[in-house]
Design a protein that fits this description.
The complex is a heterodimer of chains A (433) and B (252). With 433 residues, chain A is of the alpha/beta class. Chain A has eight helices and 21 strands. With 252 residues, chain B is of the alpha/beta class. Chain B has one domain: Rossmann fold, CATH 3.40.50. The chains are: A alpha/beta (433), B alpha/beta (252).
Chain lengths: 433, 252
């Protein structure tokens, strides 16, 4: 097969009257659906789908997600990173199940997007999916927009407000062939500061489809730390499309952790639009079985004096596969760009496959950019050192893999968050903390 | 009870390195091996620990009567009571010292028994204090960004935490300034006991001023060619290794 199935249109979730969005938004959704249908499916000839397994993109079996069986069970299971949260929203099959906001400063909005589209129309009109999807999945982004239901969230932190505790959002999918469309829109005013954690989880091991989008907008001096903890079932097809726009002297740090999913396509675009903008792009992906992860990134330096730093790490066991294609693009006039891009694969199996395509497209002079990809196995010397201390080989190997990911977390500046993430990684990789 | 090395031969690839080495270290004693670079000192340490690059072609090493070579994996030998302090300790990114040592201690407990964290940390901190290792090191990655002295102090810390029966110290003095040498030596001396034997491998006599050996052996070309008391080390320092070679050849 050389292209993805052409028009696998997932039906509307319910009667049009049940769509929670206001009329103006629904009109945009209808246009998006038409665009989805008019846009050809990706083919092998598309550079942005190079090496991709297109047959995995067959959406024909997926159906609208029904109401979840037990709201209480999912709410109880939404424990997050541990510790207090400023606000917590729990969605099950694109329906809001629970919200609480015990420590949200005045003026901060954390609410379903449908509510925001009515109550904060100007904000939603300005920022919702305002960036073009350039990394290959325009078609699927339009499907997302068309089918967006109750699981969209707006986080808005106004000027000079800092949210001390993390905001945690939970997106559950349940039931055979259920499809969900989570969306996290984060808009930060000048000097606003917040940490947002998205948890993507399956309530069962069933096959599912998740098509999620995150849009981040940082005004001057804002600071965002975003973490995605992806735990979809191993039989889930997922799209996670991120775009981040960073203003003057603002900093976005995004950490994407893919623990689950059967076939996951990730696209991350960071656009540095004013001098002093910084973007740190991190991803941590322990892969095994036949899991397949396809990540495409763009570090788009538009203004002068901007900084981006991408570090993606994968471990590949069994017959897992990764594709990474990244581009640093210092545009015309983006003098004094600092752009770094590094992807590292730890190969744990001879049957695993990694395709790495790091890239650089320099349209201006006076830039400092490095990019590279490495692949290698667990160091025999490190393993011998561990065994010489009495640690059995298989456990030593697990510790080394966990350390490979743990050291990536050093890029997270917030001590408390880094500790919690370290514990999470250790527990997933079954090593002691 | 001893660590008994009997007519040991070993090679790397087709290259023989150990050529019939005999040595017995009774519990309670400290023995030193001195020798030129390339004499096979470090190979002996690695062969005993089970490094996969080396092939044992003959002989045996008995740890309190049990052959080390019936234990194939390096971790089995370590748990049997052999400890190797590395000349070049490995850096392990992202694995903290506390977790690393904890995994090693845990590996010595019976199946299903969990290490008591409070006791573990109390023990760890006490031993770190004795070795003048700042407590902030517990959360640092193993050996990553450490100075030479810090690495060697951490080797001794691991040794102290694991309480082995026999300790092999491979060039533990290399890369140490005099202050670090004193701290490391105090750490080793504090562990000397009737229940423990030490094999100290070194190129220089200096270390043996601080860790005073019961016996000194000289190694040339994969064999022990001379054995004496601590004064032999001083004589070597004064006359150089070529003296041994000539002397040994003359009496051979």
């Amino acid at each position: 097969m050389t292209s993805a199935p052409e028009h696998s249109v997932i039906p509307e979730p319910a009667a049009p009257a049940a769509n929670p969005f206001p009329a103006w938004f629904q009109a945009e959704q209808a246009a998006a659906l038409a665009d989805y249908e008019a846009t050809p499916a990706p083919t092998r000839r598309d550079e942005s789908w190079r090496f991709a397994s297109l047959k995995a993109l067959d959406l024909s079996a997926f159906v609208p997600a029904p109401p979840v069986a037990s709201e209480g069970r999912l709410i109880t299971a939404s424990t997050g990173l541990g510790g207090d949260a400023a606000a917590r929203l729990v969605f099950g099959n694109d329906t809001l199940l629970h919200r609480d906001a015990p420590a949200l400063p005045p003026g901060v909005l954390v609410k379903p997007l449908a509510e925001a589209a009515r109550e904060n129309e100007a904000l939603v009109r300005e920022f919702f999916m305002a960036q073009p999807v350039e990394l290959g999945s325009h078609k699927y982004a339009q499907l997302h927009r068309a089918r967006l239901g109750g699981a969209g969230v707006l986080v808005h932190v106004p000027k000079n407000v800092e949210v001390a505790l993390p905001i945690e959002l939970f997106h559950w999918v349940e039931g055979e062939n259920s499809s969900v469309f989570p969306h996290t829109l984060i808009v930060l005013g000048e000097n606003a500061k917040v940490t947002v954690v998205d948890h993507f989880r399956s309530a069962d091991g069933a096959r599912a489809f998740a098509c999620g989008i995150n849009d981040f907008h940082l005004a001057r001096g804002a600071q965002l730390t975003y973490v995605a903890v992806q735990d979809w079932s191993r039989d889930t097809l997922a799209f996670h499309l991120n775009s981040t726009v960073v203003g003057r002297d603002a900093q976005a740090t995004a950490l994407l952790m893919n623990f689950g999913g059967g076939h996951v396509r990730g696209e991350s675009l960071s656009r540095l639009v004013e001098p002093g903008a910084r973007s740190v792009m991190l991803s941590l992906n322990p892969l095994d079985g036949t899991r397949h992860l396809d990540q495409r990134t763009l570090q788009d330096h538009v203004a002068t004096d901007t900084f981006s730093d991408l570090l993606y790490r994968n471990s590949l066991d069994d017959r897992s596969q990764v594709i990474f294609a990244g581009l640093i693009r210092p545009g015309v006039g983006a003098a004094r760009t600092d752009g770094y891009q590094k992807m590292e694969n730890l190969m744990l199996s001879e049957d695993a496959v990694a395709h790495a395509m790091p890239g650089l497209e320099i349209l201006t002079d006076d830039v400092r950019c490095t990019h590279g990809a490495t692949s290698g196995g667990v160091s025999a010397d490190e393993l011998f050192y561990m065994q010489a201390r009495g640690i059995p080989e298989n456990q030593g190997r697990r510790l080394i893999v966990a350390g490979f990911f743990r050291s990536l977390l050093d890029r997270i500046e917030n001590d408390s968050l880094r500790e919690k993430l370290g514990a999470l990684v250790a527990s997933r990789l079954e090593v002691i903390r | 009870m001893s660590l008994s090395i009997q007519n040991l031969t070993a090679s790397i690839g087709d290259q023989p390195i150990l050529k019939g080495l005999n040595l017995e270290i009774p519990k309670g004693e400290v023995h030193a091996i001195m020798g030129k670079n390339g004499s096979g000192k470090s190979t002996l340490a690695k062969v005993m620990a089970g490094h996969p690059d080396y092939t044992v072609t003959g002989g045996d090493v008995l740890l309190d009567g049990e052959s080390l070579f019936t234990l194939e994996e390096p971790d089995q030998r370590a748990r049997a009571g052999l400890f190797l302090a590395f000349q070049y300790p490995m850096e392990i990114p992202g694995v903290t010292i506390a977790n690393f040592i904890r995994a090693a201690v845990q590996a010595r407990l019976p199946e299903g028994e969990e290490l008591e964290a409070t006791d573990y940390y109390a023990n760890l901190y006490a031993k770190m204090d004795a070795l003048k290792i700042a407590r902030t090191f517990t959360s640092r990655s193993v050996n990553e960004g450490f100075s030479g002295g810090e690495k060697k102090r951490c080797e001794i810390l691991q040794m102290a935490m694991l309480e082995p029966k026999y300790c092999v110290l491979d060039e533990t003095d290399s890369g140490l300034d005099i202050d670090a040498l004193k701290i490391v030596s105090e750490g080793v001396n504090a562990m000397r006991s009737p229940d423990r034997g030490f094999l100290v491998i070194t190129h220089y006599q200096r270390l043996l001023d601080y860790i005073v050996p019961d016996k000194v052996h000289v190694m040339v070309d994969g064999r022990i060619v001379m054995t004496g008391d601590k004064d032999l080390a001083l004589e070597l320092e004064a006359k150089g290794y070529d003296w041994v070679t000539e002397d040994q050849l003359a009496t051979a």
